Structure formats: structure tokens, C-alpha cells
């Protein structure tokens, strides 16, 4: 299947560790469409209230020379489906085990604990073995589907997102808060392909704005903003929007406030275009070329979307016969591009725990197996969640003395190579 | 967190039991004349009272739940090691237990028997406590993957062909002596008795039966608690008396056996046999002390 011509707006940044996981462990990377992967070498981050306070992260410390890879969700999804098909073909050849079954266009309508259920169910077991033997009902959770079927599972893995029904079924508490911010995303084209292969991030007081490279002259942006600003960003005329992005990466915050105000009165007011180019013209050209992303020239029509930003972390990722992975276990501010990578790391740890359990003849739904997963996955996730939360909060402050202090901190950090290397290694999962 | 040694366990594997096997046959009359069963009624009453708690991973037998994966891994690794020593280089390590007839003597709630079965062994778990067997059977019947057969009707073990790649699990309320009398010697590829020998009367007779029911060239795995001050402190003073993790009376200090005692027992069996039958094969006794990592 050929990918759509324009980039889809659901894009993620894959760390070298995640790529390695897909290559070595899952083996799905063989099926990835490499024409739609953009490896980039570093990030240039700067303060919205003090453009000279900058920090750069480079991939040289990860050993590969690459900081991360930009990849569409749809690319990952189709590579995984191809991998499952390949594995199923092998299983059929060997006449062992059972192939993986994918049920699409099917919803889970209910999850039941058979020991607490009021009624008896006619259910089919995942292993297709009659579970009716025994004096006691099987304690495996029953998953009822909207097509009338029911499945009973030794281990139910909840990869079912922020509102995880599996997590609710298991009565696992999840703690966190809404940031009162929205993430606005979209696909754009830059003036031309940038040989620098860099991501750019500016910490505005309304939230960080990032432009990340895709192949050729394509790029994607994530603009964390207040609810009012997010609403405006979705409404702004598609011709004006690219210039607004360039302005937001470059101009002073007071200039931006003025432009926002004009657009709030009329999101199609093209006089803003002249205003922006006049303000940009006062900037030093060599500084612009060196320290800022290329001008944005085009917004792919209809590619803008928004989602609420929140932080949450489940108290644990397991219950008897239950494991949680990905957003069901934790949601994170997108500013460091860690969400999907944390999910991949969860899966890696879970698989490791299950392999160990199988090796030792254990019941893989037992908490004795799953506690290994939680012990390995939870603490590092908690650290990344905390770090990203603190970054968000530090840059949301506009109080001038603090801005100077912050600038001093960033410049100091930027000059401390080893601390920075440590941060890059943590973020890139190395 | 790494806690210290919970108990000193010795796990041993006896290789090429051919000699031991002949020895044991000669001694059978002696063993059976002295005592028909090594089962201690007080011990059985004690464990029967606790049987409902076998599968509570955080309860009375929590430490066994933590140890069980380690024991299973040890057995698998040793079998793999032996297969390589015997020159089977094209071995599929994951399937080393597949199709083997394994006896778990003193299976309790069936923790170890279930693990062996998942690794492909055709397992018979026996226990002198009827309530242990009831709990073990109930638990196994709740896992469809175990192809568990109830032994409420006495049946010849291993008579039916098992599902390809999957072990069959059977439980029976009996003692190793009675099983030996019924099935005869040379019946099992692997015999395991984990944390049992410290609970029986007349361990010599018990161990002799365990060795005798084993096929020539089979493997005998034993684990127990060594009679060291540390083991007393951890398993009796701390676990039973101080912290009450374990019901007081579970362990008896004087019944603990040291690795050297077990090793010399099997060496004596061996040497008495080589005196009487010089043509017999070799027996290899390997003792190993394990520190169990907790938490």
C-alpha cells in the first residue's frame, strides 16, 4: 500500500533506542517505509523571552550521530501489521502455536471478572480449550466485544490509552493533572530542504513550539498553547498560518501578542502578512540564517488538529492477569517527544518479564511474573514524567528576574558538556 | 533490594544413576523391612491445616513462590548442561523437559509441578497430604493449558499420549514408597523433591526410594535447608518466631540436612554398590549451595 502523498499529522519522534527495539527485538523495522523516515541530528532549543539563551542537543553523544527519527504513526502501524502477517505465516508452516488474530472495526463493550459476574457466559477461550473443567470458574478476565463475541484471557494487556477501560477494570489509580494547555499539530512545508537536519524548539510563555523535520522540504509542528490561543491557531487563515509560525519561532513575545490580537479580531486579516515581514526585516539576516529554522512557506490544508495536554501516571502497571502499557499507564507533555518511546520501552520491559516467566514455567498472568515488569518500567517513566513536567513549568514563567535566571541556567547548562550528554542519553534512551 | 540468603539450599543432580539404581535394589529389602513409609503424620497434619494458603503469593508460602522460578530455572539449566555433556549439540534448550516423565515428590500445592508441566514435562505430583492434593488439583484444573487429569480414579501414569509440545499433569495422594511398590523401579526420567527431605522421617529410606524409582541415567533433584546457624536464624527464628511469615512448627531444626551429608549419603550408596557389582556404571553427585535472592 502506498502512503498518502502528503504527510499525515500524527507524527512521532523515535529515539535510537526505540528504533533499535523495532530492529532487533520486534523485527518490524524491516517493514518500515524508509522513504518516509527523517533522521535528524540535533535540537536547537531557545527561550521565547531571551533568544540568546540557547541550548543545543546533538546526536553525537548517542554514538549513532543521530538524535532521533521522525516517523508517521501510520508508517509504524503498517510495519507492525506486516510483521504480524510474516510471523503468522511462519507459525502456519510449523504447525505449532496459534496465529495472532487481529479484530478490526471491533469495540470492547465490557470487561468482566468471571468470579464476580452475576450471570454465566458462553465464552470462547483464547486458547480454544474448554475451560469448563474444575470446580471453580476460571479467574481470567472476560472481554466482551460489540460483535457479540467474548474472549477470556490469561493475561489482558491494556494498551487502550489515557481513558483505559482495562485500567479502570483493574481498579488501578492514575494520578495527574491537566495542563490547561492544548497541543496544536500540523504538517507544513519549509522554504527548501534544510541540510542541517535539525529540530527547533522555542519555549514561549504560552508553551513550547517545536518544528521538526520530515523528508525533503516537509516538516511538522507541535505548538503547545493556552486554550484561547489553540482555538485561534486552528482558525487562522491557511495562507497566513505559515507566516505566523515563522513569526512565533523568531519574533519577540510582545510582537506576537500584538499579532495574536489582530488575528483574534479577524483570523483572515491578511494585513498581518505585511506586519510580520516588516518585523522580520528588522532582524539580522546572518543571525536568522544561523540560529533559526528556515521560513515556513505552506500549511498542508486540513492538517491542523489539537489535543489536550496532561500528565498522568498509574500507581502500578499490573494487577492479577492485567498489565498496562503506553498511555494507559502514563501520559506526558509532548515537549521532549517521549510519549511513544516510553510506550515502546514499556513493551520491551513487559516482553522481558514474560520471557523470563515462560522460561521458568510460570503462569504469565501471575503478578509474580508481572511485578518484574513494573519494577523495571515504572521508576524510569516516573523520572521522565517529572523532568518534562518541570521543564514545562520553568518556561511558563514570565517574571523578568526569573527569565534572566533561567537564561543564565540554560547558558550554563549548554556549556556543561557532560551534563548535557547525560540529558541526551536519557532522552534518547541510551 | 537484595536481601540476604533466606536459606542455604542445596540442589543436586545425580547423573548416570545406573549404579545407584542397582545399589538401591539390593537395599530395598532393608529399607522396606525397616519402615513402609517415611511420612510423618504430624508434618502431614501441619501442612493439611495450611493447604488452603498454598496459592496465596503474598501469604504463608510467599517465599516458596519467590523460590519456585529459581528452582525451575535451575532444573532446566542443569538438564541442558547434561544434554550438552552427553553430546546432544542440536538441543532445543527451551524444550529440554518436553516429553520427559517427571515425578515431583511432596508437591504441596503444586507450585513446582505446574511449572515443570508448562515446560513440557509429563509430571506426576504426589503428596502425603490429601488436602494438598485437593488444592493442587483444584488449582491445576483452573488452567486450561496444563492438560490436567484428575487422578481420583487410579490410573497408570503416562499411559495416554500427551498433546504435542504440552506436558500432562497428574496428581496423586500417595507416598514415594507406595508409588515405588506399585510402579516398580526405573519409572521416571527425572525425580524432584523440593523442600521435602527436611520434613520426612528416616531420610535415608526416603532418599533411597527416590533414587530407586528413577530410570538409569535419570536425574534426581533435591533441595533442602542446610543445618547452619544462618538457616536457623532466617527460617526458624526470623520467619516463624519473630516475623510470623511462616506458621511456627513448619520447620524442625534437627531435621535440616547439610550438603556434605547428602553428598556422602549418595557416595556411600555408590561405593557399596561398586563393591558388590564392579561392572556397574558411574554415578555423579553434584552438590550446589544456592543463595536465594529475595525481592
TrEMBL record, chain A:
A Gene Ontology biological process term: ubiquinone biosynthetic process
Signal peptide (residue range): none
Molecular functions per Gene Ontology: FAD binding; monooxygenase activity; oxidoreductase activity, acting on paired donors, with incorporation or reduction of molecular oxygen
Domain FAD-binding: 147-355
Keyword Flavoprotein: yes
A Pfam family annotated for this UniProt entry: FAD_binding_3
Family: Belongs to the UbiH/COQ6 family.
Protein name in UniProt: FAD-binding domain-containing protein
Record organism: Cerrena zonata
Automatic annotation (TrEMBL), chain B:
Family the entry assigns: Belongs to the class I-like SAM-binding methyltransferase superfamily. UbiG/COQ3 family.
Function: O-methyltransferase required for two non-consecutive steps during ubiquinone biosynthesis. Catalyzes the 2 O-methylation of 3,4-dihydroxy-5-(all-trans-polyprenyl)benzoic acid into 4-hydroxy-3-methoxy-5-(all-trans-polyprenyl)benzoic acid. Also catalyzes the last step of ubiquinone biosynthesis by mediating methylation of 3-demethylubiquinone into ubiquinone. Also able to mediate the methylation of 3-demethylubiquinol into ubiquinol.
HAMAP family hit by this protein: UbiG
Its membrane topology: Peripheral membrane protein
Superkingdom of source: Eukaryota
Pathway: Cofactor biosynthesis; ubiquinone biosynthesis
An annotated GO BP: methylation
Chain sites annotated for binding S-adenosyl-L-methionine: 71, 106, 127, 194
Subunit structure, as described in the record: Component of a multi-subunit COQ enzyme complex, composed of at least COQ3, COQ4, COQ5, COQ6, COQ7 and COQ9.
Keywords: Magnesium, Membrane, Metal-binding, Methyltransferase, Mitochondrion, Mitochondrion inner membrane, S-adenosyl-L-methionine, Transferase, Ubiquinone biosynthesis
Residues the record lists as binding Mg(2+): 195, 198-199
One Gene Ontology molecular-function label: metal ion binding
Keyword Transcription included in the entry's annotation: no
The species this protein was found in: Cerrena zonata
Top class in the EC scheme: transferase
Cofactor(s) it depends on: Mg(2+)
Pfam families documented for this protein: Methyltransf_23 (PF13489)
Catalytic reaction equation(s): a 3,4-dihydroxy-5-(all-trans-polyprenyl)benzoate + S-adenosyl-L-methionine = a 4-hydroxy-3-methoxy-5-(all-trans-polyprenyl)benzoate + S-adenosyl-L-homocysteine + H(+); a 3-demethylubiquinone + S-adenosyl-L-methionine = a ubiquinone + S-adenosyl-L-homocysteine; a 3-demethylubiquinol + S-adenosyl-L-methionine = a ubiquinol + S-adenosyl-L-homocysteine + H(+)
Protein name: Ubiquinone biosynthesis O-methyltransferase, mitochondrial
